[in-house]
Automatic annotation (TrEMBL):
CDD domains reported for this sequence: WD40
Principal subcellular localization: nucleus
GO biological process: DNA repair; DNA-templated DNA replication; mitotic cell cycle
Organism: Rhododendron simsii
Protein name: Minichromosome loss protein Mcl1 middle region domain-containing protein
GO molecular function annotation: chromatin binding
Localization, UniProt: Nucleus
Length: 958
């Protein structure tokens, strides 16, 4: 039998390192997983679709939570604790409702009845309390156990309650009378005082059998009415079973034992059909209400989902769930409360058999077996006489049953169509709340903001990575309970959601320095709450639950309020730009998120970019921000980094995939990136975010495209080629923007020249690989991309040395055609422009009007690919320079001449050795040079200029 590995994530941490009893359960629609631990006072509500996202945490108990229970309609959550209290919450919101009861000793187990109107609670105290959830009253206390009660279960037919104590005694109670029908002593293991693993009882979904852990490492089935032993499930458990769970249709059962195994059983065949081994004992399990999955949690507080727990070749565990609404033991179908009333949403119907409600309760199956039809009590006879005697009782029940089924089908279709989970809003660089621990409100490339909770307030600190640059900011006492923040060089902004009905969401800005006192300001919001905040140059932004984008000035002036098209996901600021991500539409049935991004320029009040934001299928957005160069970047839960560029009319380029570089036990938590590196914190699984202490260590990852495996075997070179093209495209665009405003571009000219050199080196290596791999067509395409004449000469010599004369001839033809075309273009431009323009503007016009002469500044943004027809970049060296110099002798108005004498001549030759295999490319010394020069290095001012435009600028020196 194949053993599969299940990844467990930490939900609750045991401070003492010892095991504790942990609980796990699903809600009705399988949209939430709830976990708790007897060593942790918090309750976590997880999103099963986004397991790595931060859970919603409920902190209302003072001590560990020992038990959880959800009402059947998943609208009410109950929790029991070591602090002796039982609390109720709204679900899934988690709003605390009431302390419904208290005990004098710790609680161990809770359970709702079928309608949710009754809650059974028990523990170390004597007696089981049956609590009416409508008014909180104690309906009855059942006494009979002599030890701690660790297992409870309401009969699905609302007639019995089964309980099990730590001594191994099972008692079956009749709810209508409150008396013990059966007492089975010592049939389960004696757990003593070890409450990290507790005995459990569980009714089958059809209510016909009661499952109890046996004394022989097995599960024993007992008859519903007679409590007789029916059969047992015994397999490969080598230690006692500590938890069991029926599948929703009752066909399968999952059992966990002290041997750290979980077995899946086919109950009808009484055989185990699959199993899983874990590192720690699994102390609680829950079948997914829809689909084929089992949620588990171990004694160390780690939980996970076992997908396809039942082999796909077998019947699904949710197929054919029994319908108990109109089923009775003697074949007569009676109306009970659930049939007569409309489907209950609030869980207000009571099916407890109290004396005052006895007439409304269905007759128990046990009594019906002993009675004839004439012996049915008077109330039931009256009910039967209301129907025509020749009419079958089955027909109205069947019609009503069909009506309920239709409503359920409609509800299921609605759930299927709209049940896909929308990603909740998150703040980039913010980590989830952890009880008693400091966490990050913000962590970016500049610094971090941390907070830790105390009694009624929090302590906030701001630190900069470079202590020499950032100001020293004093710590702050937070009485608002801020949960999100943003940070830049000028200040910080904080916000908190609403807490309760009377508390309002607050936004606060703190500048680091100001000429005026009391420069800090805050805003309060009624009927809405802040979801995310962002910070830029002289502005603050907040997006609220009403889909309002609120923009404030640095001084607190409310500048604008915009309505967004959908619920916000996240937002981030950089300089004058604000980028916001929203939901474009409901997520797809595959749970793929449909997101949209918008970039606003706050200074000018414009929207520069808008479009769809891609994420990897099946993932969600986990980080959003700007690079150091101002490019929008995203990182999703599948580990793919994307950067937005202007190429192809505006596209997202995947520049990094963590699945190719990380180890299986690692997760990447992104902080930021620059042009070449990704900055992230490597977290050990199952952690997906770093702790404040110890201080996170930033790791630098190389950016790389997710390229296909090339037949050339030069993936690294191809990746370098695309990256260099991308960087050169960005530099060229910046040069164009600066030229349009008349700014000096000298520094960028040098940077573009260096990038051209690097690109030529990469292309030359690719040409060599193509020659060795007999990819001659691809080599010809690459030669057309070379920027420098001497690079093409080197390629020609390379082809000759490898004894590829036809290829060398093609390279030579390409060189001659380009030199001829560039000579004609340069001559035509200088004759038509320099002869008529005598102003200083001629310099700018040359650069602006003839981009083909700028070999280092090719402004075309498209990244060339081997499948495209690749353009031939012009040369900047010997051939082009001579042509331009000759044409430049023509005089312009006012006696000015174009001084082109400073364009040097390339004197380096490329010698290629070891024909047949490229070993090395050497540059020979020429003239009186004392050392070899790089053929791609920028020449010094004494020999030649790097750019044609540097020479042309000197025509107006005087």
């Amino acid at each position: 039998m194949k053993i599969r590995s299940i990844k467990l994530r930490e939900a609750h941490k045991n401070s003492n390192g010892a095991g504790s009893f942990c609980s796990i359960l699903w809600d009705l629609q399988a949209q939430h997983i709830v976990t708790s631990s007897s060593s942790d006072p918090s309750i976590c509500i997880h999103d099963p679709l986004l397991l790595s996202s931060a859970p919603r945490i409920l902190r209302n108990h003072r001590d560990g939570v020992t038990s959880l229970a959800l009402s059947p309609n998943s609208t009410c959550l109950a929790s029991g604790s070591v602090d002796h209290s039982v609390k109720l919450y709204k679900f899934p919101g988690g709003e605390f409702q009431t302390n419904i009861t208290r005990f004098t000793l710790p609680i161990r187990v809770l359970g709702f009845n079928k309608s949710g109107s009754m809650l059974a609670a028990a523990g170390d105290d004597e007696g089981i309390k049956l609590i009416n959830t409508i008014d909180g009253s104690i309906a009855r206390v059942l006494k009979g156990h002599r030890g701690s009660v660790t297992g409870l279960g309401f009969d699905p037919k609302s007639e019995y309650l089964a309980s099990l104590d730590s001594a191994g005694t099972v008692i079956v109670w009749e709810l209508q009378s409150g008396r013990a029908l059966h007492t089975l002593k010592g049939i389960a293991p004696d757990t003593g005082l070890d409450f990290s693993l507790m005995n459990i009882v569980c009714w089958s979904p059809d209510g016909e059998m009661l499952a109890v852990p046996g004394l022989k490492n097995d599960v024993v089935m007992y008859d519903r009415d007679t409590a007789e032993k029916l059969f047992s499930l015994r397999g490969d458990h080598v230690q006692r079973i500590c938890f069991l769970s029926w599948s929703p249709n009752g066909k399968y059962m999952a059992t966990s034992g002290l041997d750290r195994q979980v077995l899946i059983w086919d109950v009808d065949q009484r055989l185990d059909i699959d199993r899983q081994k874990f590192d720690d004992v699994i102390c609680c399990m829950a079948w997914k209400p829809t689909g084929n999955a089992l949620a588990v949690i171990d004694a160390m507080g780690k939980y996970g989902i076992w997908d396809s727990a039942v082999p796909s070749s077998m019947k699904s565990p949710t197929e054919g769930i029994p319908d108990l609404q109109s089923k009775n033991s003697n074949g007569l179908l009676f109306f009970d409360e659930e049939e007569v009333e409309e489907p209950n949403i609030s869980g207000s119907l009571s099916d407890l058999g109290e004396d005052s409600h006895g007439e409304s309760q269905p007759t128990s199956r046990k009594r019906l077996r002993k009675q004839s039809f004439s012996d049915v009590d008077e109330g039931t006879s009256d009910e039967l006489s209301l129907l025509p005697k020749d009419a079958s009782r089955k027909r109205p029940s069947h019609n009503h049953k069909e009506g309920i089924k239709k409503r359920k089908d409609v509800q299921m279709r609605t759930t299927t169509s709209v049940g896909s989970k929308l990603q909740e809003a998150f703040q980039p660089g913010c980590t989830p709340t952890q009880s008693g621990k400091r966490r990050f409100l913000c962590y970016n490339m500049l610094g971090s903001i941390t907070t830790i909770e105390h009694d009624g307030y929090s302590h906030i600190e701001i630190d900069f990575h470079d202590t020499g640059r950032g100001p020293r900011v004093p710590a702050m006492t937070d009485y608002f309970g801020f949960t999100m923040a943003a940070l830049n060089e000028n200040g910080s902004v904080f916000a908190n959601p609403c807490k309760g009905e009377k508390s309002m969401s607050t936004l606060m800005y703190r500048p680091f320095s100001s000429w005026a006192n009391n420069s800090e300001w805050s805003m309060r919001f009624e009927d809405e709450e802040v979801k995310v905040v962002a910070l830029g140059t002289a502005w603050v932004a907040a997006v609220t639950s009403l889909n309002f984008l609120r923009i404030f000035t640095e001084g607190g002036l409310q500048r604008n309020v915009l309505s967004l098209d959908g619920p916000v996901v996240t937002a981030v600021g950089f300089g004058d730009e604000l980028a916001v991500v929203t939901h474009a539409s409901p997520s797809l049935p595959s749970n793929d998120q449909m997101l949209e991004f918008r970039v606003f320029n706050i200074r000018h009040g414009t929207q520069s970019i808008r479009g769809r934001l891609p994420v990897t299928p099946g993932s969600y957005l986990s980080w959003f921000g700007f690079s150091e160069e101002g490019k929008i970047c995203t990182f999703d839960s599948k580990g793919v980094l994307r950067v937005f560029t202007d190429q192809y009319g505006g596209s997202w380029l995947p520049l990094f995939s963590s699945t190719k570089v990380r180890k299986p036990e690692e997760n990447h938590w992104v902080v930021g990136l620059n042009a070449n590196k990704l900055f992230c914190v490597v977290c050990k699984s199952p952690d997906t975010f770093p702790q404040v202490i110890p201080k996170p260590v930033l790791n630098l990852m190389d950016l790389s495209f997710p390229l296909a495996s090339s037949d050339l075997g030069a993936d690294n070179l191809e990746n370098e080629f695309i990256l260099h093209n991308l960087h050169l495209s960005q530099i060229n665009k910046t040069i164009e923007e600066m030229m349009s405003t008349g700014q000096d571009t000298t520094s960028l000219d040098d940077e573009a020249f260096k990038m051209d050199c690097s690109l030529d080196k990469c292309i030359f290596k690719l040409i060599a690989s193509c020659c060795n791999g007999d990819k001659l067509v691809r080599a010809t395409e690459l030669v057309k991309l070379l920027s420098f004449e001497k690079s093409v000469k080197g390629a020609i010599e390379l082809a000759k040395s490898l004894k590829l004369p036809n290829l060398a001839e093609r390279f030579t033809t390409i060189q001659e055609e380009r030199l001829l075309n560039e000579s004609k273009a340069a001559t035509a431009f200088l004759v038509t422009n320099l002869g008529s323009d005598t102003s200083d503007k001629s310099d700018f016009m040359i650069r602006k009007s003839i981009p083909p002469l700028e070999s280092s500044y090719d402004s075309k943004p498209a990244i060339p690919s081997p499948s495209q027809k690749l353009p031939s970049p012009p040369f900047m060296k010997k051939g082009l320079s001579e042509a331009v110099a000759k044409a430049g002798k023509a005089k312009v108005k006012q006696g000015q001449t174009a001084n082109l004498e400073n364009i040097g001549e390339v004197k380096n030759d490329v010698q290629l050795k070891n024909a047949g295999e490229v070993k090395n490319v050497e540059v020979k010394k020429t003239g009186e040079e004392s050392e070899a020069k790089n053929p791609f290095a920028k020449s010094s001012n004494k020999q030649e200029k790097s750019s044609l435009f540097d020479s042309l600028k000197k025509k107006n020196v005087k």
